[in-house]
Write a structure and sequence with these properties.
The complex is a heterodimer of chains A (172) and B (230). By secondary structure, chain A is mostly beta strands. Chain A contains one helix and ten strands. Chain B has 230 residues and is mainly beta. Chain B has one domain: Aromatic compound dioxygenase (Protocatechuate 3,4-Dioxygenase, subunit A, Sandwich). Classes of the chains: A mainly beta (172), B mainly beta (230). Strand 10 of chain A pairs parallel with strand 1 of chain B.
Chain lengths: 172, 230
């Protein structure tokens, strides 16, 4: 009999309380000894409308060592903007074969429980060997892969619904 | 750690039409249960300097004392084995005593309090315990439906000891007459799971003539943690 504490939405008013961590991981403050990329995209609802009051967190476990001077090494948080957009500068140190470039968590008003996902880079030569992607139905794997759209920039949209719905995880 | 399936009805419904904004924002596909070692074994490790003076006393961040009923909120964070979740980051945020958030998008016609901003953070101790001082938040309208008023609540954000334990929830106060009418509270099908979000009044934690105590214990998912030090 599980007695876990259940989830509730973050609601629309998280921004002031969550801002401290947004500031600590701002791209302008990033000190890292690893190469970096910019991961950017838009968070969409089931009608294709942008979600402008969400929070996105990214966790880069392998980056903790190369960002040791930061308050929370290997962690990013950003609210989505007016057009549902988000942009994160990520350290990309060597990582174990098949690991995502970041584990991502999505929070929003109207989302009663946060959603876990993960993002991979399309030019990662080890994608085919990823033990995580191997557990995702082949037809939906693309929802977890960011596309290169510039020098060091990758585009990754998150869809809460529709036939593009991003794969969300529950970890065993 | 191991993360067992959550029993049906414990998590809130992702699509709950009475809470209108869930309809287009909740995922339609069930979460894919996957085996991945990193999320269930590692976590962020914040530097101690993230904690600032008064982060644990939300009544001391202005020039003077805020208006409202001063309270202390405390509890233990444990995993599904009952083991303490130690040295773990918690964030809290809430409305002021008049039911108004310090937030540019809150246009509820209730006063802001220049001495109360309504957010804080803390780490759990070796027993998994947290404690903070605040002001009892007021209920507020949210326009989801006619006479839609949220029961008074404090938002909690917990990071746990491993990434997969991450949780955001809301703590409520005992005997709130608004529970029956609140779609956010009632998006949780299981009655016992709803009741676990309601704090208890605690005379033990009440501090003399200064403030009433409320106790809110939290159980994060996960069991089988490697004992500390191994």
């Amino acid at each position: 009999m599980s007695n876990i504490t259940t989830s509730q939405t973050i609601g629309p008013f998280s921004h002031e309380g969550w801002q401290w961590a947004v500031d600590f991981c701002a791209a302008g403050r990033l000190e890292t000894s690893a190469p970096t990329i910019v991961l950017h995209g838009v968070l969409y609802d089931g009608d294709g409308n942008p979600i402008d009051d969400a929070q996105i967190e990214a966790w880069l476990p392998e980056a903790a060592g190369v960002e040791a001077s930061l308050e929370i090494p290997g962690f990013r948080r950003t609210p989505t903007g007016k057009a549902g957009e988000f942009s994160l500068r990520l350290s990309v140190p060597p990582r174990p074969v098949g690991e995502p470039v970041a584990y991502v968590t999505v929070f929003a008003r109207g989302l009663t429980k946060h959603q876990f996902t993960a993002v991979f880079l399309e030019d990662d030569a080890t994608l085919a060997e990823s033990a995580i992607l191997a557990q995702v139905p082949a037809a939906r794997r693309d929802t977890l892969v960011a596309r290169k759209d510039g020098d060091g920039t990758y585009r990754w949209d998150i869809w809460m619904q529709t036939d593009k719905e991003t794969v969300f995880f529950d970890y065993v | 750690m191991k993360f067992d399936d959550v029993q049906p009805g414990v998590w809130p419904e992702l699509i709950y039409p009475a809470y209108k904004s869930t309809v287009k924002r909740g995922p339609l596909q069930p979460a894919l249960r996957i085996d991945a070692s990193v999320p269930v074994s590692r976590n962020i490790d914040p530097a101690p300097r993230i904690l600032l003076p008064h982060d644990m006393d939300l009544t001391r961040r202005g020039q003077a004392a805020p208006l409202g009923e001063k309270i202390v909120v405390t509890g233990r964070v444990v995993d599904e084995d009952g083991k303490p979740v130690r040295n773990s980051l918690i964030e809290v945020w809430q409305a002021n005593s008049a039911g108004r958030y310090w937030h540019q998008r809150d246009n509820h016609d209730a006063p802001l309090d220049p001495n109360f901003f309504g957010f804080g953070k803390m780490m759990t101790d070796d027993d998994g315990r947290y404690r903070f001082v605040s002001i009892k938040p007021g209920p507020y309208p949210w326009k989801n439906h006619d006479k839609a008023w949220r029961p008074a609540h404090i938002h909690f954000s917990l990071f746990g000891n491993v990434y997969a334990q991450r949780l955001v929830t809301q703590m409520y106060f005992p005997n709130d007459p608004l529970f029956a009418y609140d779609p956010i509270f009632n998006s949780i099908p299981d009655e016992a799971a709803r009741q676990r979000l309601v704090s208890r009044f605690s005379l033990d934690h009440t501090v003399g003539d200064e403030m009433l105590g409320y106790e809110f214990d939290i159980v994060l998912r996960g069991r089988g943690a490697t004992p500390f030090g191994l």
